[in-house]
Amino acid sequence: MNRIIKYGAIGVLSIVGIAHIGLLGYVIRRPADTIATVPTINIPRGPYSSYRIKAGKDGYEIEYRSDDPKVLQSERSLDLDKERRGVFGGGREQRTEYRIDQYTRDGSRNLGGANDNEGKSAKELECIVADAGAQSQGAMAGTSIAAGVLVPAVSSIPYVGWLASGWALLLGQNLGSAAGSTVNSMISDC
User: Fold this and answer.
1) Is 70 exceeded by the pLDDT of residue 159?
2) Which distant-in-sequence residues (6+ apart) come within 8 Å of 70 by Cβ?
3) Peptide bond before 44: cis, by omega within 30 degrees of 0?
4) Among 174, 173, 167, CA closest to 151
5) Which of 42, 140, 160, 164 is the most exposed place for a label (fewest CB within 10 A)?
């Protein structure tokens, strides 16, 4: 039995050794016709995308923007040349007016702030901020209550006590957050 294992191991090691020597010979004497090629990169293109590729012998760099231009700009000018008439006499008025408008891709004009349909009143913003704070405070209170009451009770469950303790904390956090939001909506009249 030892003889079979011995000759089997020698045979397997001989095959692995010859394969390694052959692979080393191939790596050392690489064929000259293999030329490094540039990888093919399929960049997604659309009507509003742009990309720039810089390639050199040290590597390549790709800059891709999927929604470019994000803001479209329109410039107009109006030359005004008219003769003034009126009580205090005449004269010529010459002036040039410039107008620069920026548009988003969907065609709405950029007014430098929120659009009318997206704007919120000061009361709505105050309610949003107050609700966020109330949810945060309620979540902290719910977590601390759950840590003091629920976690000791469920942590003694065999095998899954550690998991049930985490669930109890999450339950306390969610209930506290909901309770904080409800109390805030009653107090703040939101």
Assistant:
1) yes
2) 104, 105
3) no
4) 167
5) 42
pLDDT tier for residue 100 given thresholds of 50, 70 and 90: confident
How many CA atoms lie within 13 Å of 181's alpha carbon, on the beta-carbon side? 12
Q: Around Cβ 97, how many Cβ atoms within 10 Å?
A: 9
Separation of alpha carbons 97 and 75, rounded Å: 11
Of the chain, the percentage scoring pLDDT greater than 70 comes to 81
Mean pLDDT of 126-132: 85
Chain centre to alpha carbon of residue 185: 32
Give residue 117's pLDDT band: very low, low, confident or very high (50, 70, 90). very low
Q: Provide the token pair at 170.
A: 């999450």
- Find all residues with CB under 8 Å of 161, minimum gap 6, and list them: 154, 155
- Tokens 């840590």 locate to 147
Mean pLDDT of the 120-146 span: 86
Q: What is this structure's pTM? A: 0.38
Other Cβ atoms closer than 10 A to 49: 13
Torsion angles phi and psi, residue 104, rounded to 5: -85, 170
Residues 99/80, Cβ–Cβ less than 8 Å: no
Distance CA 61, CA 52 (A): 8
